[in-house]
Amino acid sequence: MKKVTYLIFIAIFACLALVACGGGDKGGETVPDGDTATDTGDTVTDGDPADTGDTVTDGDTDEIEIDGDTVTDTDEIEEIDVDIEGPIVDIQMGLVPADTEVTFECVVTAIAYNQDDSTHENQSIKGLYVSELIDKAAPYTGIYVFIKKTAGVNEFKVGDKLEITGVYSERYEVSQIAVEDNGNILYLGTADVPEPAEIADSSTIATPYELVDEEYSPTANHGADTEKYESVLVRVKDVEITNSDLGHGAFEVTGNLAINKELFYYPGSRSEGVKFDSISGVLIYSFNAFQLAPRSIDDFKVKIEDATIRAVQKAEVVKGSTVKISESVVTAIAYNQDSTTHENTAIKGLYVSEIIPQAEPYTGIYVFIKGTADVDAFAVGDKLEITGTVDEYYDSTQISLVGTDNIKKLGTADLPAPAEIDDPSKISTPYAKNGDEWEPTGNHGADAEKYESVLVKVKNVTVTNNNLGHGAFEVTGNLAINKDLYYYPGDRSIGVEFDSISGILIYSYSAFQLAPRSADDIVAAAVE
Q: Fold for domain 197-302?
């Protein structure tokens, strides 16, 4: 392991000053930008011993030998252990003067694009984040390559092994290599992208923000390790969102770490409290702040929390969280239908319940399948394991998932008996006449929220309004009977009586409504 002493050149300067005090003046000694120290031509190149025989020892001792005098580090000089040697490390540690032309080999870890202002489509490559050719990222092993004349949008890819010739400079306090065009970049093949450096404490690479005049602005309190990991591929673990909107598309996670959108805009939930197993990306310095810039959706590993339907419906799980419901049973299916024939064409969602003898408050939920599923993919009574994202859609709690890969069939299970509601008004939303149309009021029944998406039953009810619009009618207690799962073809005349009506209590168009699933759910009273 190569041990490089932090502020080594300040130590050299101090040593030279001691020598000068003992035998003469400083002569031409200078320490420009903390990068180099000269004494009668002595130099420190790439962290190696000076060519004149002066040495910086590589062993376990922290001694600097100058003109025969040995100076030992004191505890006041912080030590940094650097396991990697390479040209990028030399540049990032200040061993290469600014405006020096350099040539080195590297691997692409991320790509910065110019985008169309309207469509946000990538138009050209403006720069590359590159790394030393190593197995795992480490301090000082990454740097940004700025392509002055840009490159074609498909010219380079993550994993490309390149030889780059350009000029090292500091631009807006960011180390970079500037190349005129892609003619200064030689393609050598491909190489493995290093594993991200794992950051134990995210605050050490963060720049905290503060609220100033209703906007969040970065402070100057950069984390202790920010400079070390500038332009390096890193990973933070076990973090959660602490600020959903820092502005400019960024949000904040544990440790005041800003998650930047420059390389990829995260489309998932940004609700405070949403947890991630890990977030990876390149640590960039932008607009006076160190921020983590993920490169794709693959850099986000959302934490999957084991949860029950009851916990989700009682808001014990943060909206936007990804949950796994280990066991549930399908109580109803929502289909897309042909607009002409009204035949079912695909499954758009499932109503599922906890596996219990009789339905109870908070034990049902709607599962929305983005992209739909085949019309016969699931059936009522299927026992399922479901992994998806907790969401609120038009004030209705649901679990959303893409496709059916996150739905695992476990067999079949008995459906719970419907929860029996003694007073239909407790779960209903009354309607009021507005001109020629009936519209829901905001006066939801006291138990409506508790029974959202739950299988319920009302007994001994009578039709009180035969046409609420949109195929619905109303029964005792101002309870609307909905047609989304099944259209009742029977008599809806005012005064018609039913022994019972069962179904799923859904929330649709600002109203709680009872949605029967089939003819079996509607039991008309016997006509005497």
A: OB fold (Dihydrolipoamide Acetyltransferase, E2P) (2.40.50)
Six-digit token string for 343: 């035949």
Model pLDDT for residues 375-415, shown as the tens digit of each residue: 999 999 999 999 999 999 999 999 999 899 999 999 999 99
Closest alpha carbon to 188 in 108, 113, 128: 108
Per-residue pLDDT tens digits for 410-439 = 999 999 999 999 999 999 999 999 999 999
For the record, the structure tokens of 426 come out as: 């407790």
- Residue 109: CB atoms within 10 Å: 23
DSSP 179-227: ESSGGGEEEEEE-PPPBPEEES-GGGG---EEEETTEEEE-S---TTTT
| Helix/strand/coil for 425 | helix
Give, in order, the Cα–Cα distances in Å from 394 to each of 129, 161, 172, 397: 41, 49, 45, 8
DSSP codes joined into one string, 295-351: -SGGGEEEPEEEE-HHHHHTT-S-TT-EEEEEEEEEEEEEEEE-TTT--EEEEEEEE
Calpha distance 197→255 (Å, rounded): 17
Residues 354 and 314: beta-carbon distance below 8 Å: no
CATH classification code of 87-190: 2.40.50.140
Place of tokens 């892609």: 182
The CATH fold of domain 304-412: OB fold (Dihydrolipoamide Acetyltransferase, E2P) (2.40.50)
**CATH 3.40.50, domain 419-524, yes or no:** no
Per residue in 159-215, pLDDT (tens digit) is 999 999 999 999 988 999 999 988 899 999 999 999 999 999 999 999 999 999 999
The tokens describing 250, both together, are: 């960024």
> Judging by DSSP bridges, how do beta strands 304-307 and 322-337 pair with one another?
parallel
Detail the DSSP E strand segments found in 394-454: 396-402, 407-412, 419-421, 431-434, 437-440
Largest CA distance in the chain: 124
The residue among 431, 377, 420, 394 whose CA lies nearest residue 506 is: 394
pLDDT digit string, tens, across residues 326-367? 999 999 999 999 989 989 999 999 999 999 999 999 999 999
CA 314 to chain centre: 24
Tokens linked to 109: 């870890």
